[in-house]
């Protein structure tokens, strides 16, 4: 039960970041440590 509450708190607190990642606008640090910025798809 505690794990579910903590997971919900994390999701709510990071809602904006999750949205930016899904829209490919959030800066990412991949495992290779090359800092990259996602580019939105061209229409």
Automatic annotation (TrEMBL):
GO molecular function, one term: acyltransferase activity
UniProt KW keywords: Acyltransferase, Transferase
Record's protein name: Glycerol-3-phosphate O-acyltransferase family protein
Naturally occurring in which organism (per UniProt): Streptococcus constellatus subsp. pharyngis SK1060 = CCUG 46377
Lineage, top ranks: Bacteria, Bacillati, Bacillota, Bacilli, Lactobacillales
